Amino acid sequence: MGDAKTALDLSGFSRVDATGASDRLVSYLEGAAVTLGQLRALRLALLRLTPGARAIDVGCGTGDAVRELADLAGPQGRALGVDLSEAMIAEARQRHGDSSSPIEFKVADARQLGFPDNHFDGCTAERLFVHLDEPARAIAEMARITRPGGRIVISEPDLDTMAIDTADRTAVRAVCRAFADQVRNGLAGRQLYRLMLDGGLDEVAVHPHPVIVNGWAAMNTLFPFEHFAGIAVAQGALSQESAAALCADLRARDAAGRFFGCYVVFVVAARKP
Ligand SMILES: C[S@@+](CC[C@H](N)C(=O)[O-])C[C@H]1O[C@@H](n2cnc3c(N)ncnc32)[C@H](O)[C@@H]1O
Asked: Is 253 domain-assigned?
């Protein structure tokens, strides 16, 4: 099984600066970007920004999407990235400080963003709500700072949708559950429709996107499978033997070119009335 001491703890995204491992969390984002890049393009397109727009990415991480927002908003617009983590904001500034477009990064908490009401034309977030334990509060803040008629687009996985083809369905369910439950709100994707309606938004449109994980290496980049197999064993949800057999089965399927895994990311767009 994976070494619990060296495996990346994804719950660290809720408190990046306290982990002392922000560099590893940045590397994780880099690895995941290979699989998730297209989804970002869809998320930003759904904001329907026009030149001169003011846009904000909440929980921006290393800020790559903020640069794209700046390109969409043009030289007369403004793109802002905010994140709870000082380390992430420092990384974002270092990466994108040379942008020719108006772009800015700030440390801020999604629960209390500190911008004026009705300030932005577009407000977005990706993979933030899976790390929040007060998602309704963050939605309320995003709605507050968006102007009437402005758009809010949030993209979140639902980690309980992970489907992996293997012989032992009981064992794989136990490992997937350990993964989904490690972060604060692993089922965020399915909650967005309700949360956005409850937050007073309208024209709420859900765009579900399957993400195919095409191999054991890709799976372990997004989802350190052996580590979570170890956690499922420690939780008593799975025997050591079943966990080892499961991992061996998945490696064998991969070697035979038969590995298949998939989960759903929900990109949800809405308008502030
Ligand atoms: C998985 S990363 C996603 C980063 C980026 N959105 C992306 O898709 O690459 C989650 C980010 O949310 C930030 N975060 C977690 N809790 C937050 C909060 N309460 N307010 C603002 N940002 C937060 C973390 O610091 C981290 O940078």
From this structure: no
